[in-house]
Each structure stands twice: as structure tokens, then as C-alpha cells.
């Protein structure tokens, strides 16, 4: 069954067709949201909310052939809503280093390295907008073509290709700045 036919059945209230959509896209939407939200529990909650919204608002889908794009747009908007709510309620607390450290010198070294690698990656990605992280997720985690990403984010494939290139350049520049900053810090500490 093609996506347009599936969408039309969902619009008519066919629960089996909706189950097919859910089974086919739950993991993809979850991964997409995990990239935006950075928290598996939040991503799972928002994934569920997304599918509930799709079912409850199935009559609002104007172009059945765009069901997947609609699904991703809803997921993205629900994720942004959740992030705004989290920010309003409280500042996110960083997990302390002590939680990652276990007994033993070797384990300590491995855990410290893992902790700082994870913080570095998180720090780099935090410098990106939600849309930029979402596009990187679609390109590199879901391995979608520029055309497929374009369909999901409602842009031309050329625009998506340019955005991916700019995002990568932005990350490279940020990495170079971080490395330069670390070198200057090391040198100033060595000289003193």
C-alpha cells in the first residue's frame, strides 16, 4: 500500500492503517525527536504525543501524499513545544561527573574520557539550532537523500544541500575555535 492510500484510509478512521503507519514510523520519529530533545524519555513521550495528534487530527491532512512530511512537521512542533515547557519550568541540570565514575583507575580513565567526549559532542551540537540538528539527524542518522529531507522539511533539495554544507562548515569552525582555545590555555599554563 502506498503512502497516499494509507493516508486516505487513516483519514477515514481505519485503525489498521494507522497501526501500519505507527509501526513503520515510530522508530524513525523517535530517533528524529531524540536528536532534537536529547533525552530518550522525552523523545518517547513526544513520539507518542505526535501519533495521538495525527490520529486525532487526521481529517486536517489536506494532501494525503504528504502524510510523512506532515508527521515529521507535527513531531518537530511538538518537540519545540516540549523544549519551551522544559525551559520555562526549570533549567536543565547537567549530570555530574561523579555519576559516570566507577571504581578503579582504568575504569575512571575510560569514564572520564567518555564523559568529556560526550560533553564535547553535546557542546558542539548545542551550538546548532533545533532545525539544524534535525536536518543533520535526517541526513546522517536516517541516511536520507537531500530530496527525501527536502520533502520532510518542505524545502528544495538544493536548499537542503546548501544548509547541510553550511551546518558542517559551522561545526568545523566551532571545532577549530575550540582547539585554538585549548591550545592557548595549554600554552598560558605551560608558560606560567
Automatic annotation (TrEMBL):
GO terms for biological process: DNA-templated transcription initiation. SUPFAM superfamilies: Sigma2 domain of RNA polymerase sigma factors (SSF88946), Sigma3 and sigma4 domains of RNA polymerase sigma factors (SSF88659). Gene3D superfamilies: 1.10.1740.10, Winged helix-like DNA-binding domain superfamily/Winged helix DNA-binding domain (1.10.10.10). Keywords: DNA-binding, Sigma factor, Transcription, Transcription regulation. The keyword Transcription regulation applies. Residues 21-85, 124-173 form the RNA polymerase sigma-70 region domain. One of its GO terms (molecular function) is sigma factor activity. The keyword Transcription applies. PANTHER family: RNA POLYMERASE ECF-TYPE SIGMA FACTO, RNA POLYMERASE SIGMA FACTOR HI_1459-RELATED. NCBIfam families: sigma70-ECF. Belongs to the sigma-70 factor family. ECF subfamily. This is RNA polymerase sigma factor 70 region 4 type 2 domain-containing protein. The lineage of its organism: Bacteria, Candidatus Doudnaibacteriota.
Amino acid at each position: 500500500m502506498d503512502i497516499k492510500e494509507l493516508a486516505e484510509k487513516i483519514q477515514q478512521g481505519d485503525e489498521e492503517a494507522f497501526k501500519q503507519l505507527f509501526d513503520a514510523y515510530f522508530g524513525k520519529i523517535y530517533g528524529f525527536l531524540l536528536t532534537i530533545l536529547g533525552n530518550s524519555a522525552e523523545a518517547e513521550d513526544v513520539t507518542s504525543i505526535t501519533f495521538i495528534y495525527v490520529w486525532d487530527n487526521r481529517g486536517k491532512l489536506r494532501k494525503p501524499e504528504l502524510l510523512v512530511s506532515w508527521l515529521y512537521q507535527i513531531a518537530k512542533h511538538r518537540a519545540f513545544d516540549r523544549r519551551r515547557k522544559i525551559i520555562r519550568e526549570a533549567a536543565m541540570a547537567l549530570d555530574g561527573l561523579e555519576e559516570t565514575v566507577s571504581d578503579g583507575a582504568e575504569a575512571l580513565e575510560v569514564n572520564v574520557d567518555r564523559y568529556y567526549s560526550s560533553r564535547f559532542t553535546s557542546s558542539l551540537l548545542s551550538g546548532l539550532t533545533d532545525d539544524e540538528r534535525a536536518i543533520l539527524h535526517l541526513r546522517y542518522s536516517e541516511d536520507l537523500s537531500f530530496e527525501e529531507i527536502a520533502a520532510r522539511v518542505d524545502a528544495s533539495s538544493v536548499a537542503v544541500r546548501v544548509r547541510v554544507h553550511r551546518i558542517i562548515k559551522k561545526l568545523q569552525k566551532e571545532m577549530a575555535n575550540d582547539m585554538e582555545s585549548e591550545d592557548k590555555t595549554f600554552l598560558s599554563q605551560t608558560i606560567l
